Amino acid sequence: MKLNIENIKSMKNKEKISMLTAYDFSTAGVMDGTVDMILVGDSLGMVVYGDDNTLNVTMQDMIRPTQAVKRAVKKSIIIGDMPANSYNNKTEAVENAKSLIKAGADCVKIENQHEMAEAIVNTGIEVIGHVGLTPQTITDYRMQGKDEESANRIFQEARALEKAGCFAIVLECIPADLAKKITTELKIITIGIGAGLDCDGQVLVSHDVLGLFEKIKPDFAKTYVNLSEQMKTAFIEYNQNVKEGVVKSTGTNFTQMQRLMFKSKIHRATATDANLDYEGSITIDSELMKKANIVPGEQVHVLNIDNGERIETYTIEGEPNSGCICINGAAAHKFKKGEKIIIISYVLVDEDKINKFKPKVVLVDENNKEII
Ligand code: KIV
To answer: For the residues 100-126, what does the mean pLDDT come to?
Structure first.
């Protein structure tokens, strides 16, 4: 079920609120329902477009990603981030907030500017404020509010945003004790980023969580998986496959390389008979075949441990639990009753499944009963 803003408000002092950024359909689809809120942040200017800061991000840059995220999200709340210069006056603020809601956002976020927040709230749109290190006005990415004066300023702005009607506020890169004070004294939700653990919730840029943004690595952001490395490995392998000609194009589809892998083995069995008058093949106790994952008619290699001979044939089912392993036809020239043999079969496995592929080996005693 889709969360709504009332659900989020009711989580204060009860349950921590999780928020991550997403800027595209695929990522948002994976993220949906795993976190409470998805922020289509103007941080896309840096992690998607590669700018040094968020100042060049336009409304147009935000609308398409918000629409893409909306198409994928069924459960989490979507926040549309208002980019720099999109709320220079109340008319623009309202108009641009409406555009983000039309694109699919459930609410919008603005940095500082409580008067603009109030104008947007007055139209019925839910707003999240943002104080502390606000990248649209501060591009020196350092902890804010360390001295009393700036801490006071941040606190007052947080209060003003609450008074303006914001239902939540992002506290970015401020001391943990200041974030705690704001969280305790304000009734609205606080979402911290580099602001300690006492906020009502936490937000991170998903590229930091995924190890995808190598240019700046904030020390407060835990890298949960190193996708950069995994992607690089995949790209290098793909490149090698193409160069080696093992990735074949069939129309618009790609078929991947397959390898012939050892699949089944019945080890150190005893030939119970060698029958020259039978047409080629090997008869094997059907229970043993099942245990080794070999089916009737399957091609097998039979190795004679006693004399080094090796033949290729196919299987026929013998009486279950009889222990029967009979070499039939011409191969009977190379195998005698009582000789020790190994029966092996192989299978083609897709390159990407090789690591997980496990062959079946059945060890048997002198009566061809499985040794467990
Ligand atoms: O744009 C963004 O990603 C943000 C978060 C850092 C809170 O504003």
So the answer is: 98
Answer yes or no: is pLDDT of 337 > 80. yes
Ligand 1 pocket test, candidate residues 100, 203, 207, most atoms within 8 A of CB? 203
Ligand 1 atom nearest to CA at 172: 7
Tens of pLDDT, residues 261-320: 999 999 999 999 998 887 768 999 999 999 999 999 999 999 999 999 999 999 999 999
User: How large is the angle between the packed helices 148-163 and 114-121, nearest 10 degrees?
Assistant: 10
Q: Where in the chain is the domain with CATH 3.20.20.60?
A: 5-230
Which band of pLDDT confidence, cut at 50, 70 and 90, is reported for residue 247? Answer: low
Phi then psi dihedrals of residue 196, to 5 deg: 80, 180
CATH topology of domain 5-230: TIM Barrel (3.20.20)
Classify residue 173 as exposed, middle or buried by CB count within 10 Å of its CB (0-12, 13-18, 19+): buried
Q: Please tell me the distance between residue 42's alpha carbon and the centre of ligand 1 in angstroms.
A: 6
Task: Pick 258-363's CATH classification: 3.30.450.90, 2.40.40.20, 3.30.950.10, 3.30.565.10.
Answer: 2.40.40.20
Convert 203-221 into a string of H (helix), E (strand) and C (coil): EECHHHHCCCCCCCCCCCC
Token couple for 36: 């409470």
If phi > 0 it is left, if psi is from -120 to 50 it is alpha, else beta; for residue 123 that is: alpha
Distance CA 231, CA 223 (A): 15
Give, for ligand 1, the residue of 37, 81, 128 to mutate: max count of ligand atoms closer than 8 Å to Cβ.
81
User: Using CA atoms, how far apart are residues 49 and 44, in angstroms rounded to an integer?
Assistant: 6
φ and ψ of 342, to 5 deg: -125, 135
- Is the predicted pLDDT of residue 13 greater than 70, yes or no? yes
Give the predicted TM-score (pTM) of the model.
0.70
Please choose, from the candidates 164, 192, 349, 368, the residue with its C-alpha nearest in 3D space to the C-alpha of residue 286: 368
List every span in the chain annotated with CATH 2.40.40.20: 258-363
Take residue 285 and report the two structure tokens written for it. 């106790």
CA of 231 to the centre of ligand 1 (A): 24
